[in-house]
Amino acid sequence: MSWYRTAVWFVKGLREYTRGGYESASKHFNPADVEVDVTGRSFLVTGANSGIGKATAKEIARRGGTVHLVCRNKERAEVAKEEIVTETGNQNIFLHIVDISNPKEVWKFAEKFRNDHKLNVLINNAGCMVNNRELTEDGLEKNFATNTLGTYILTTALLPLLEKEADARVITVSSGGMLVQKLNISDLQSENGTFDGTMVYAQNKRQQVVLTEQWAKAHRNIHFSVMHPGWADTPAVRSSMPDFYERMKNSLRTEAQGADTVVWLAVSAEAAQLPSGLFFQDRQPVATHLPLASTRSPLEDEEKLMEVLEEFSQKFRSTSLGT
């Protein structure tokens, strides 16, 4: 059924995920939803030095929020921070250099952050699409290490901090590409068969949807959401999907359009009124499965994913603490 899923997803994408789809959907947006002052609230945005992450951080900064930028590349991150401060006039922008694909590093950062800061909203935006199978220094497949395990460790490590705050939220930037994938817990690190970076990325994004649904069940005091930004013109798309970019570049959303729903989920009162654990596109909850696509998973597979990630997480926590 994979050909069917891919074909339906692409047709859906041409209609909904492009700039035209955003412009159509935005006619129904209520501008007042995001015309809010979030001074005094603390936001952490991963992958914040470019693309949707930077656009999100900038919009939150404009609204007065304290923004923690978590980035891998120090030089690019410093440029992004300066740009955000200059354009918004908000001085409460803080920079943290962390490689989300390095679980020990994520643990060390999270433990320190918990001691030094408060946190109201976590935005898991960092991600990668590596088109050849690469292993990290810990022997982890790089897409899985960044998109799934890194997101899992950072979120679970910061949950105690979020639990302390009123109206705490966790937003994860996923992708509509997950619609072509059924959760596969038998090959989390893509060791079997031909490696296809695009499909591995889509599988990771399906995993993020499952994580969000499971977290929402377990942590009732925090509002969890996951979203698809549409097809946006970002540095990541240009570098990871050059052929797709060349075909679609005249129809892609701007970075700000891609970030719009992230910002809405992060700051609006309306978003928090909706049930926790939903998947969003253009400020609306949408289905996580295509019709007739056979991508639903047994509950035991979803629970097994959480168990495996927790085992990985605790192993690397012990290593990071030197125990």
Automatic annotation (TrEMBL):
SUPFAM superfamilies: NAD(P)-binding Rossmann-fold domains (SSF51735). Gene3D superfamilies: NAD(P)-binding Rossmann-like Domain. PANTHER family: DEHYDROGENASE/REDUCTASE SDR FAMILY MEMBER 12, DEHYDROGENASE_REDUCTASE SDR FAMILY MEMBER 12. This is Dehydrogenase/reductase SDR family member 12.
